[in-house]
Design a protein that fits this description.
The complex is a heterodimer of chains A (573) and B (745). By secondary structure, chain A is an alpha/beta fold. Helix content of chain A is 47%, strand content 10%. In chain A, helix 15 (390-409) links the parallel strand 9 and strand 10. In chain B, strand 5 and strand 6 form a beta hairpin. Classes of the chains: A alpha/beta (573), B alpha/beta (745). Chain B: It is found in: Nucleus.
Chain lengths: 573, 745
């Protein structure tokens, strides 16, 4: 290890060799070697044995093995002693310490007893659930269970899913642990073509002991395993399906622009929903699916957690909570429609890859913009991890970090990171429970829909929040949905703004300034035509915008070149 | 473009201007320098030089000067450096009288600028005419620290050595601006004139050119391989300037070059007469003359005369022109106006050289004034000036001085205006970019902060130019932010206004909690207390809980549970209890529910933001990230507010912009709903521009696009499908509608 900047020059040289060969041959392994090379080069730690390299990014067992072989050869050639394998070293160290601690016999005993120790599946793992699930059969039933039956019985005992891989890029599920059980001979399988599974005698013993543990008892209070209530795929949870289309709410809210333009808020008597007359429910977007082939996963999983979501195609967000009146006509009697009131919380769920995608193409901003306009007070961004190519992940790490931070502090949205969809589901379930506790205790005050317009909605909500921060005012779901769909409706002005912004350099602020002066595309084109023909006219056209807006500064300033560019597009210069 | 203007005007003495053409310019000379330097086997200076050129180019400061400055500062004894730029020009031109004339003009211009630059500069400025300059300059430039040796090596100017040394005292004060401007001015005048309202750009050009010339010339005596120099010196007078042009990257077409060249020449002719009185030993005489200006003992009549004459002429010219020039330059950004536009005008200029010359002077004055205001030593220069003039011709000088003063007053007023405008522009810079807004932040780190975190945070903050301090926080591990507020948004005028700097508290406060502490709080129910303590000390703040290591803790917790379970199973099996392990008492399993509920409680009940980190390093990074984003909040909020009354998100990247007018037109059409690319291309094939389309729709009615065929590809091949009635109507409404609030589009 001479003065080279890399801590492991010899190992690095070998990796470099591979890298060069791969490059020459144009081999696909090039990237692999490149990753390995880069990470080894950057690593400041000096390694004794190639096996230690596995802790680095880009090194796996195979590369380490090859390096070990090379090192062996190298050591033989140079006559240097081959370094000890780290595990062997560790063992030796342990031993040494054991003796020095004068507890040598304990150390060796430990090693022995460990060998003797019987296999016990991890608590709430797939293997555990399978064993427990199989134990629900009577001991003398020899037929065994099919995979489908067994999964149905086992799933409640397991944190991971037996049917869905932990994330869409992976292919194994909790079911894979059955192989371990077969190997450990706790379970046996037989039967062709449909395999059936049953516990071996050894398996029964383990189950008996499992059932004696406080952990199992805590999970399954009092009842015999067979009586355990199961919700299997055969018995679909009663999920309310509410496939309303957006158009239904389209015109719930008046969009008369002249309605109360003067800024005075309409006086209204809020409809009060007393505690007990409503229940808090979770609305879930129908498009929130785990995979194309597994559309109902979320709904079913939530149902298993005791939360029955109302499935609906949502105008905004992926989940939100409503207070549903027990008496369906309650709101109607007081001048609001429907029987649902939108609460403060809305959830936007994003898988990490979606997040990166939406940052790249600008949808991220757009979605936050729409959430902001919805007037919902509390937005929760759930960012679900997904195993991604580490290269891509590092590339966008900063962007993701930045997006999360700005969402938190600038938009003041809550960001929740989860590791997989199951965690998201658990979070939603827990959240539902929490909101139930929070909202169902106190009366809800609902703004009658007739007091709302598309124009006063935001300011009215703001105003009420300021005036009575402790008191929540809510709108009905139909009103909310109408508002959300309205926000996507563009006026001629908006289209003109967008058209202006297609010219490079015309930012939103500049476009707004231009639109203030020329209201519509027609006016703008005519203004250019009004500049007249000939050289003079051309000049006037070129400077039309910049002259008109000469007094603006900063971001709104329109410079001559930009004015020229605009004129080129709109005025045929 | 507003930005550039700001930069120019802004108070910092060498304002970096980022105009692309300059860079091109800058690079050429640097390359040449490199060559000459290499010949001297001196690489160090070169690097610096080239660096400067590539990165920032000062409009006001000479482009070439940065290097000179450096050397000067490094070694105050050698004063020649500042001169150098001038010198080379003179050297080159020495052969031809006319060229000499040009020199003179340059010198004159220098004199003009004296007020701008400190008096020390004056002598130096004149010196350039000396023959030795070229050499010296090169050598000094290469090895600034050893002027004597260099001079010795100079064959031409053994006698001149003294001069540089004498001037050396002045070295320090060396104001690069003065000479630079002067140099540029002769060249500038034609170009500047031709340009409409883009004086700054033009200015850059000439300077660059002059520098380049100097560089080229410098290698000449050594017979360096640069070909351009040789032709220059050999060329007949009329062609002499052409080398300058050739080095000028802006003059892309030979024709343009020509015109440019001729124009300046013509302008200088009047000067020639004056100077030509002592043409035979051109360098020497001129040299003396120049010295005389500052040295009263050795005065040579012809030189003085020439001087005064040119000066007065200049003055007049400036007086006349200044106003218009000023207004021009101040009003318009010089930014992107292209040189091409201006070139044609140059030809016109040639026909009226006289006027031009005056113009150029005014320009130089103009700039000089600007630079002066920056340098903030105008009084001194003016005093100098007056004294100078008295020695020469009292009457004219007095008159001049008066005018000068008036002009200066005028200029001072203008400068104030400009400063105000610059300040306004400065605070209106786009600061939604966190890089720009971050230095406004002050981070207060609690004294109780984990030392690891602190040692990691501090350098990171330093790197971002963020100040930080330690404070005794009432609650442990609190990070809070303050902002140096320098601007306030004026709602009525819709822009930011500078306000006296003050420190304001930000409304975010972060508290770092380790997983273990958090679990303890969750279990003991102390979380509410913690939150209320926070809200008590930081009322109306947004709380951010940075929880460190909770994921790891969760994993450990799960392991604990499993270990208990496994041992529970094994106990019944009769295996030895695992309590014999070397670890201390096994950790107690804490229900995840409790933790999750505590987190939810924090979120729902207390409205806190929660972020999880794994290790202290990540925590520190997150403090940085938060700092950056908190810094942008007021600006983002303002921007959001400004764009709030549009019904769509106006963030950049939301609307795709076109590359050229045609492309923009097509993209514009696609912003209308249901207009797809094929439709847009089809319509564009029928109506080539927006105005044609509007007129077509106006005259043809709502259905006139109905039969327009959609295009099959971008090349204009049409498919069989047509745009259709509905879309035609929609387009008609968009392009002929006059009700901006119409939603029927």
């Amino acid at each position: 290890m001479d003065g080279d900047e890399c801590a492991n020059p010899q190992l690095l040289a070998w990796v470099k060799e591979w890298l060069d060969v791969a490059r020459e041959r144009n081999s696909k392994g090039f990237t692999t070697y490149k990753h390995a090379y880069d990470s080894l080069k950057a690593c400041p730690i000096t390694f004794q044995h190639p096996a230690e390299l596995q802790q680095l990014k880009g090194f796996g067992p195979k590369l380490c093995e090859r390096l070990t072989d090379l090192l062996k050869k190298h050591c033989q050639e140079t006559g240097a002693p081959m370094p000890e394998h780290p595990q062997a070293r560790k063992a030796a160290q342990n031993k040494a310490r054991g003796t020095s601690e004068s507890a040598g016999q304990e150390g060796s005993k430990q090693a022995k007893t460990r060998k003797k120790k019987s296999y016990v599946p991890t608590f709430r793992s797939g293997a555990y659930a399978i064993v427990v699930g199989l134990s629900s059969q009577s001991a003398d039933a020899t037929l065994g269970l099919t995979k489908a039956e067994l999964i149905e019985l086992a799933q409640p005992h397991c944190d991971a899913s037996f049917t869905a891989p932990s994330d869409p890029t992976k292919f194994y599920t909790a079911w894979n642990s059955v192989k371990t059980l077969l190997q450990k001979e706790l379970v046996y399988e037989r039967g062709r073509p449909l395999r059936r599974y049953a516990l071996t005698d050894e398996g029964w013993e383990v189950v008996q002991r499992i059932k004696e543990t406080p952990h199992w008892q805590a999970e399954n209070p009092q009842q015999p395993p067979l009586a355990e209530p199961e919700i299997g795929p055969g018995v679909l949870p009663a999920v309310e399906l509410d496939q309303t289309t957006t158009s239904e709410y389209q015109n719930v809210i008046s969009d008369d622009p002249n309605f109360l333009e003067n800024g005075a808020f309409p006086s209204f008597t809020p409809i009060t929903l007393e505690p007990g007359t409503f229940s808090v429910q979770l609305l879930l977007d129908v498009r929130e699916v785990r995979a194309k082939t597994d559309r109902d996963y979320m709904k079913e999983e939530l149902a298993k957690q005791g939360v029955t979501p109302i499935m609906r195609s949502l105008e905004l967000g992926d989940a939100q909570w409503i207070a549903k009146c027990n008496d369906a006509s309650m709101l109607a009697r007081h001048g609001a429609e429907g029987d649902e009131v939108v609460l403060d919380w809305i959830v936007e769920r994003k898988r990490l890859d979606d997040l990166i995608g939406s940052i790249k193409d600008g949808r991220f901003h757009e979605q936050k913009f729409r959430l902001k306009r919805s007037g919902v007070k509390k937005v929760v961004y759930i960012i679900e991890d997904i195993s991604m190519d580490s290269g891509t992940l590092t590339k966008y790490e900063e962007a993701v970090q930045s997006a999360i931070a700005s969402t938190q502090v600038v938009n003041e949205y809550f960001v929740k990171r989860t590791t997989k969809m199951d965690e998201t589901i658990r979070y939603l379930a827990r959240m539902t429970a929490m909101l139930k506790r929070t909202y169902e205790r106190k009366p809800l005050r609902v703004i009658p829909t007739r007091a709302l317009t598309a124009n006063n909605y935001m300011s009215l909500i703001e105003h009420l929040r300021e005036k009575e921060p402790s008191q929540g005012y809510y709108v009905t779901y139909p009103a909310f949905a109408s508002m959300a769909s309205k926000s996507e409706m563009l006026t001629l002005r908006d289209i003109f703004l967008k058209m202006l912004m297609t010219t490079k350099g015309v930012t939103g602020e500049r476009a707004l300034e231009i639109q203030k002066r020329w209201k519509t595309p027609y006016n703008f084109v005519k203004a250019f035509e009004g500049c007249g023909p000939g050289e003079q006219g051309q000049k006037r056209k070129r400077e039309l915008v910049s002259n008109e807006m000469a007094n603006l500064i900063g971001r709104k300033k329109i410079t001559k070149p930009l004015s020229l560019r605009i004129a080129e597009v709109w005025g045929d210069v | 473009m507003a930005r550039e203007v700001i930069d120019l005007i802004s108070s910092s003495p060498p304002p970096p201007s980022e105009s692309p053409p300059l860079f091109v310019d800058g690079e050429v000379p640097s390359g040449q320098r490199t060559e000459s330097c290499v010949s001297q086997s001196h690489g160090v200076d070169l690097e610096c030089l080239s660096d400067e050129f590539d990165t920032t180019i000062d409009i006001d400061e000479l482009i070439s000067l940065p290097s000179f400055h450096k050397s000067c500062y490094a070694n105050p004894t050698d004063n020649t450096t500042s001169k150098n730029q001038l010198n080379h020009i003179s050297i080159e031109t020495a052969d031809a009288t006319r060229q000499r004339v040009i020199q003179e003009t340059i010198t004159d211009i220098h004199s003009d600028d004296f007020d701008i630059t400190s008096e020390n500069d004056e002598p130096r400025i004149y010196e350039p005419t000396s023959n030795g300059n070229k050499r010296r300059r090169v050598s000094e430039w290469v090895k600034p620290k050893e002027p004597p040796t260099l001079e010795n090596s100079d064959p031409f100017c053994s006698s001149q050595k003294e001069t540089p040394s004498g001037g050396a005292q002045h070295k320090k004060s060396l104001s690069g601006n003065g000479p630079v401007e002067i140099l540029s001015s002769p060249e500038r005048s034609p170009t500047a004139r031709s340009k409409s309202g883009l004086p700054l750009t033009t200015i850059k050009n000439p300077r660059t050119t002059s520098y380049m010339t100097s560089f080229q010339s410098s290698p000449d005596p050594f017979k360096s391989p640069i070909p351009q120099n040789i032709p220059c010196s050999n060329l007949p007078p009329s062609h002499a300037p052409s080398h300058v042009e050739s080095s000028n990257p802006f003059a892309s077409s030979p024709e343009q070059k020509r015109s440019k060249e001729t124009a300046p020449k013509a302008a200088r002719f009047p000067d020639i007469e004056i100077v030509s009185s002592a043409p035979s030993p051109p360098r020497f005489t001129s040299n003396i003359a120049s010295r005389q200006d500052w040295d009263p003992i050795s005065s040579s009549a012809p030189e003085i005369g020439s001087h005064t004459l040119s000066e007065s002429r200049k003055q007049k010219a400036t007086a006349e022109v200044t106003i218009s020039v000023d207004s021009d330059s101040s009003v318009h950004g010089f930014e992107s106006e292209s040189d091409e536009d201006e070139l044609p005008d140059i030809n016109e200029l040639i026909s009226k050289p006289r006027k031009r010359s005056s113009l150029h002077r005014s320009y130089s004055d103009n700039f000089a004034s600007k630079s002066r205001s920056k340098a903030s030593k105008p009084t001194k220069s003016s005093v100098d000036r007056t004294r100078d003039r008295e020695t020469k011709a009292a009457a004219t000088a007095a008159e001049k001085a008066r005018k000068q003063r008036e002009r200066e007053l005028d200029k001072a007023a203008k400068a104030r205006d400009r400063e105000r405008a610059a300040a306004l522009a400065e605070v209106n810079k786009i600061r939604t970019d966190k890089k720009i807004s971050t230095p406004e932040m002050l981070v207060d780190l609690s004294a109780s902060l984990n030392p690891t975190t602190r040692t990691q945070v501090e350098p990171l903050l330093k790197a971002l130019d963020v100040e930080f301090s330690t404070w005794e926080s009432p609650v442990d591990n609190v990070v809070k932010w303050r902002r140096k507020v320098t601007s306030r948004f004026n709602e009525d005028l819709g822009h930011w206004e500078p306000v006296p700097r003050r420190i304001e508290n930000e409304k975010h406060v972060a508290v770092i909690i380790l997983a273990d502490e958090f679990v303890q709080l969750a279990l003991s129910g102390g979380l509410d207390d913690h939150v209320s303590k926070m809200t008590e000390h930081f009322p109306n703040h947004q709380l951010i809980y940075l929880i460190e290591g909770l994921h790891v803790w969760m994993r450990k917790n799960r392991n604990t549970r499993n270990r208990q379970f496994v041992s529970g199973v094994r106990v019944q099996e009769g295996a030895a209890p695992s309590s014999s392990r070397r670890r201390n008492a096994p950790a107690e399993y804490v229900s995840e529910e409790t933790i999750e509920d505590a987190l939810l409680q924090l979120q729902v009940m207390h409205d806190a933001l929660i972020h999880h980190t794994t290790i202290p390093l990540e925590t520190s990074q997150w403090i940085i990230v938060l700092t950056q984003h908190i810094s942008t909040i007021p600006y983002r909020k303002q921007k959001d507010l400004a764009t709030m009354n549009a019904a769509f998100c106006m963030e950049s990247g939301q609307v795709r912009s076109g590359d050229n007018p045609k492309d923009t037109y097509i993209r514009m059409l696609q912003e209308i709903s249901r207009v797809t690319a094929p439709v847009a291309y089809g319509i564009a094939a029928e109506f080539g521009t927006v105005s044609e389309l509007v007129n077509g729709l106006e005259s043809g009615g709502a259905n006139c696009l109905e039969a327009v065929r959609k295009s099959a590809n971008k090349d204009g091949v049409m498919s069989d499908r047509t745009v259709g009635q509905a879309l035609s109507k929609r387009l008609h409404k968009v392009f002929t509608g006059r009700d901006e609030s119409s939603t029927d589009v």
